Amino acid sequence: MEQNIPLAAIYVRVSTQEQAKIGFSLNAQQEALENYAKALGYKIYRIYRDEGKSAKDIKHRPEMVEMLGDAEKRKFSAIFIYKLDRFSRSLKDLVLTVDKLKEWEIDFVSLQDKIETASASGKLMFHIISAFAEFERNLIGDRTKFGMQRKAKEGGFITRAPRGYSLIDKRLVPNEEKENVVRIFQEFLDTEISLTQLAKKNGMTTTGIKKLLLNSTYLGKVKFASKETEGNHPPLLSERLFNGVQNKLRNKGWAV
Question: CA dist 126 to 72, 99, 138, 192, 217, Å?
Answer without folding.
Answer: 18, 8, 19, 67, 49
